[in-house]
């Protein structure tokens, strides 16, 4: 029976994905999908915000030779109705609880991929990185890899997306309670 070291397999898959990211960006003018575009397209669809590739490309800025930045991907996603927050997820932290874009880095350069939580124990993620097939790994193992940067674009919590409304409603409620309590103060009748 052949045994594979999971860390070696993960490193090989991640390095192969870096090569495919560079290759995808170098193809003819008809296909300009780099790893950032792929990752954002997947994230939007997996989060229930399907969009056409043409619409996505229309909201992204002109691509640079280095590809897109996390800020550019977050801005494009926000303009399509799904705000993203950049967070730092270190080795030992719990896995992202929603579909997220992760940024990895190696001697080959930077790369974006999509991870999504799978399983019931809170430890496994599925890594989606076309054209490679999706694969499942332990999140701690992925985060401990040398290419892991911890930089993650995560969809903003739904309750935070309407924060001006929530803040305004909360402020009005607090003011009403304060006014009622002030009216109930006992008066000093000495």
Structure write-up:
By secondary structure, this protein is of the alpha+beta class. Helix content is 43%, strand content 21%. The protein is built from seven helices and six strands, in the order ααααβββββαβαα. The chain has a six-stranded antiparallel β-sheet. It starts with 5 loop residues before the first helix and ends in a 7-residue tail after the last helix.
Which key phrases capture this entry?
single chain; 190 residues; alpha+beta; Cathepsin B, Chain A; 6 strands; 21% strand
What share of residues are in beta strands?
Answer: 15-25%
How much is the average pLDDT? 81
Q: In the CATH classification, which architecture of one domain applies?
A: Alpha-Beta Complex
Report, as a whole number of angstroms, the end-to-end distance. 93 Å
Q: What is the third-level CATH name, the topology of one domain?
A: Cathepsin B, Chain A
- Mind telling me the CATH superfamily name of one domain? Cysteine proteinases
Unreliable stretches: 1-20, 22-31
Strand order of the largest sheet: 1-6-2-3-4-5
What percentage of residues falls in helices of 4 or more residues? Answer: 40-55%
SS content category: alpha+beta
For the sheet with most strands, the description reads: 6 strands, antiparallel
Shape: elongated
Write down how many β-strands occur, each being a DSSP E stretch of 2 or more residues: 6
Count of helical segments? Answer: 7
């Amino acid at each position: 029976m052949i045994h594979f070291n999971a860390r070696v397999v993960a490193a090989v898959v991640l390095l192969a994905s870096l090569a495919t990211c560079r290759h995808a960006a170098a193809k003819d003018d008809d296909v300009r999908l780099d790893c950032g575009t792929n990752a954002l397209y997947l994230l939007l669809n997996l989060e229930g915000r399907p969009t056409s590739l043409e619409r996505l490309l229309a909201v992204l800025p002109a691509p640079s030779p280095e590809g897109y930045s996390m800020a550019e991907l977050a801005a494009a996603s926000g303009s399509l109705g799904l705000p993203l927050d950049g967070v730092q997820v270190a080795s030992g932290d719990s896995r992202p609880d929603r579909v997220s874009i992760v940024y990895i880095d190696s001697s080959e350069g930077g790369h974006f991929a999509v991870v999504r939580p799978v399983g019931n124990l809170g430890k496994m993620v599925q890594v989606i990185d076309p054209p490679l097939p999706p694969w499942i790994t332990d999140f701690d193992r992925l985060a401990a890899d040398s290419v892991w940067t911890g930089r993650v674009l995560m969809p903003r919590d739904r309750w935070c997306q309407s924060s001006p409304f929530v803040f305004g409603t909360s402020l009005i409620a607090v003011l009403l309670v304060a006014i009622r309590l002030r009216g109930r103060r006992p008066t000093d009748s000495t």
